[in-house]
# Entry
Amino acid sequence: MEDTRQVPTPEEARSKLRETRTEREAEAAQVMADEDTDIATEAEVRAGVQTEEADMWGGVNINDEGIHEVMTRAVVDVIVRDELEKRLRSGRKLRVKLGIDPTGPLLHLGRSVPLFKMRQFQDLGHQVVLIIGDFTALVGDASDKDSLRPMLSPEQIEANMATYKEQIGKILDLNKVEFRHNSQWLRPLNFTDVIRLASKFTVAQMIQRENFSDRWDQGKPIGLHEILYPLMQGFDSVAIEADVELGSTDQLFNLMAGRALQEDYNQPPQAVLLTNMIAGTDGRKMSTTWGNGIYILDEPRDQFGKIMSMNDDVITLYMESCTRIPMSEVEQINKGLEDGSIHPMDAKKRLAWEIVKMYHGEAAADQAKADFERQFQERGIPTEIPIVPIEQAAGGRANQAGEVGILDLLINTGLAPNRKQAQRLVEQGGVRVDEERITNRAHTLKPTPGMILKAGRSFVKLET
# Structure
């Protein structure tokens, strides 16, 4: 029997192939979308998220003053500002997310900045969701790290988490906090799920991050597990259906990853609110890893003393970011510091007293202040001390450990005109470094912020 089928022309064949390929791509995309939806849905179920519409309305305060405080106090940027303000004025109860990885047992004041912001949302009637990153802590966020971060063991993480609620409860109303552990939805993901999540981002996007690009240029290792961290933090937002996520400026990439993943999973993208970063006792960003923190559970006297050792230029930043002092008063104090009508020592004492009062009570704050003042009086330290930059104090003579000889230190800070006079001061017992009398002319020490040097009747204070 003769075959009467028409042989397609090359153009017709190519057209048919294009149609078939388009149909297959559409089918594959739908399968992928269905699988993505399944992952998101399963994560929401594991998170126990309640999304009934009736639960999302009522009891929300939309007054201008409260919204202004949320949008401006200790805030560096909002993405997208108009979008968040519209949500705040809608009267709908927002789900406000903050994640904390238990990388150490103590929370420092840097962690308190977004917690205070959460409290403001809480006071307006919104639902705050605090995610304890018991799974992400296995990896560790590399946002502010200049080297490969060691992975924590589950036992270390569990030990670190032991007192978190106690510390957080000094800022938030624990009865109104929704606590979640991201191991609920991250641990059940399989390798296929991880590949699917990873397909949303490119290697170039990851490597372009400042800390990664710096490490790349310096030939320092970047762990593949570190690159996965933004995916995990972003997926947290999908799992709990976040409307807002809080974080500091160095967290921007991770927070934006949450927006991107939510859009992929057909959720409204969260608003991102970036809060102030505060300096630690060494002038760098306050960090558990760097050991430069002022901690919520520090003893009152230690807490007060650490704050008093900080640079004067952070006083009002700390007041705005880490206390409940009204902003109108913070602005008055800032103006007084600028025009000289308020002494920095007095403003810093007020700051230290407020922080100790919040975490230990008014009686403890009064006692810490009295102890500090008594200590200064007994040591005969004046309230106004000349400031010497640490770099000048070291004078290029520091060893690999950052230590400087006491004779060089006295000369570099202007406490002695020459080496002979510096040696005489030391040998006669006329030199003190903080509480310690130095009598050995070969003594070395590492200059640190807040260190007070005394030679004879002269004093200097080292600052960054």
